[in-house]
Amino acid sequence: MSSAAAPPHRAYRRLTVEERRTQLLGAALTLFAHRAPDEVSLDEVATVAGVSRPLVYRYFPGGRQQLYEAALRSAAEALIGCFDEPEAGPPTERVQRVLDRYLAFVDEHDTGFSALLRGGGVVGTSRTTAIVDEVRRAAADQILRHLGGMGAGSGPGRRLRMMVRTWIAAVEAASLIWLDEGKRPDAAELRDWLVDQLLGLLATTAATDPETASVVSGLLPWESPSGPAGRLAERLIPVVGGAAHLLPRG
Predict the structure, then answer these.
(1) For the chain, which residues make up each domain, given as ranges?
(2) Which of 106, 136, 123, 125 is nearest to 67 (CA)?
(3) Which residue intervals of the chain are DSSP H helices?
(4) Which residues have C-beta within 8 Å of that of residue 213, sequence separation ≥ 6?
(5) pLDDT tens digits for 18-65?
(6) pLDDT tens, 59-72?
């Protein structure tokens, strides 16, 4: 009677330095998605990655702080990627798609997203603050590009850039509150509300800033009655009509 054949030998492939680093960062981000960074130990990272604690230290000799900053950099790059959208179609619909990706990232990373933005604890440093600020600046640049406020040879004016950065801050704050409120309202409703906020800021800024007024004039021909701008205009008609008595007579 012949014995059962031995299972085929599975060749072991040693990970490259970059592959191992990516593996460890993935394990750290998995933990940071559900826990504040200063609550995550290197032992836990090693366990999730399936490696020894000394190996984690070999790649991140600075310990948890260095690992957190590397994970933050990785998350920052993913967040910046959320704002990368082709310049085609109505601008407000592009912003909708950007926000869909952004809110999906927030939803997926949950507690970790709060920790990444709020910092604090034993892991918050000037370097981590700089990484988060880089995300905000990159997001503002992308939104300005979609609004047509990044003309060739000249950057956006002070008022327009301030307006967009104000909106980015509002998106960030709303995302954190959304998590605190158990992700209510649903993501699609939050997205539409944030697009409405952007349109409202554009309109009020355009009323006193010629450059923003020029940007709005360039945007409107791209928009459709059934798109975000058209729907908001329709909803505002009754509100504006109710304020008709405030307009100068004659």
Answers:
(1) 75-225
(2) 123
(3) 17-32, 42-49, 53-59, 63-82, 91-118, 126-147, 158-180, 187-206, 210-219, 228-242
(4) 206, 207
(5) 999 999 998 988 888 777 777 889 999 999 999 999 999 999 999 988
(6) 999 998 898 888 88
Closest CA to 156 of 165, 178, 24: 165
The CATH label, of 1.10.357.10, 3.50.50.60, 1.10.490.10, 3.90.230.10, for the domain at 75-225 is 1.10.357.10
CA distance 206 to 215: 8
Specify the residue for token string 């100068």: 248
Distance (Å, rounded) from C-alpha 15 to C-alpha 172?
Answer: 37
- pTM, entire model: 0.81
Distance (Å, rounded) from C-alpha 75 to C-alpha 60?
17
In angstroms, the CA 181 to CA 119 distance is: 20
